[in-house]
């Protein structure tokens, strides 16, 4: 009898249809266009590292709406035409949203191309005002701060600590350079170019002789403050030349957007005392008691054996904020995600931030920073304690107001709402 029951059980199992394995959920593709080569490749690498970490973490917790994320990426070399081609290529691959950039011109170009595909584009880095003013549209969001936000924060600090000083400006000849210089002049009361002169250097192909000539003019001036409105490799070169000329010892050097990745290329020893601004640095989570920020730093350090920069934080924030908007709207559709982001307030890697609805600017605290002396830098176990936060300005006070935004749009012949 026992033998018969065994045979029947085996026979029953044999004739039952096999249980179909659950089909894996189709991945959701997100696209990163970033400079892997060229002037800003270090900032690009920082974005890629953070993006990989964010995707890995989100997938480990079950993905977005039950679907895993897949990251596709292309090298833009920070060139607008390459950024446009990258968006087209990744759209053909099925990417549902895009992010990246270091150059403002690159961000604008990529955002315009994303609009053609009815996809959102998040400018991780791109400080020129026009990214979210004259060139703004409903498909682009900017995570980093604007030139106005930087100028207002720096202006408060410099006016207080360097009153009645003469300035000399050396500026990269493109949108970011011009809007950054204009904002800083306005907020330091240095608009009179006869008293506070300046020169421009070509962008993006400035030669060493261009920087030498500009710095020689600064050295010959009676300026107390030297403002280098430069970025990436061009700032690295200019700072090294300034050091060889002793300008970093005879004048106060100010760099509107002074990032960790650029400082590491310059070398902290020749940058001691340089003043700049940032929208995030790894000291911020500790200062603002952000547990998510602390966790991000620890996970990043464990994975890459390096502290994250603001470029890393921007890319990481963009992916998490997009994923959160998808979850809250229960949709991957561009319009639904856009609406979920607009006027959404959150705290992730720092204190409160908001995606503003009328211009899609991320409104957040701006930090004025000063490069530490070498003993402080190397005294920290990381040997990356580069900056002291000497002042900060909250996002609402720093960001351009609605009336000013409308005036800029009207002057450019743009609609009064994002289109």
TrEMBL record:
Keywords: Signal. The keyword Signal applies. Pfam families: Peripla_BP_6 (PF13458). The keyword Lyase does not apply. Residues 27-372 form the Leucine-binding protein domain. Residues 1-21 form the signal peptide. Belongs to the leucine-binding protein family. This is Amino acid/amide ABC transporter substrate-binding protein (HAAT family).
